[in-house]
Amino acid sequence: MSVENLKKKQEVIDEIKGKLDKAQSAVVIDYMGITVEEADVMRKKLREANIDYTVYKNKLVSRAIQDTKFAQLEDSLSGPSAFAFGYDDAIAPARVLSGIMKDIKKMEFKAAVVEGNLYNADGVKALAQLPSRDELIAKFMGSIISPVSTFARTLQAIAEKKAEQ
Hints:
The protein is an alpha+beta fold.
């Protein structure tokens, strides 16, 4: 192998390592059989969700994940693999890809590492069902505000009743 080829491969490995350093999660999927149109639609949806989606050679990913929290993905690196990296929302890649997979039946989850934990295909599907961080915060705030606003309305009603007397 030429020195030039080795340099190119090392550049790709460094690129993958850079993405992994920033990522909260990495999802591995089998994308075989999707059309170019389907891939374009999928990439657009993933970009809109700030998810980095790339196809890399398994061998290069294998070298890049060594000694990282993503090393657990090693066993899922066989056959055609694509990688989705989540930076802001750790579960976003699983959630967005799950939605896409409902339309494109040819793709399948292989595995994922989310915040240092390994999930198999079924685990990734379960993660995809979780609400986003913003949705959870909104639900929590709603649950706090509801009793407070009920209490405030009750106090207001008591004050109005006393004012009438």
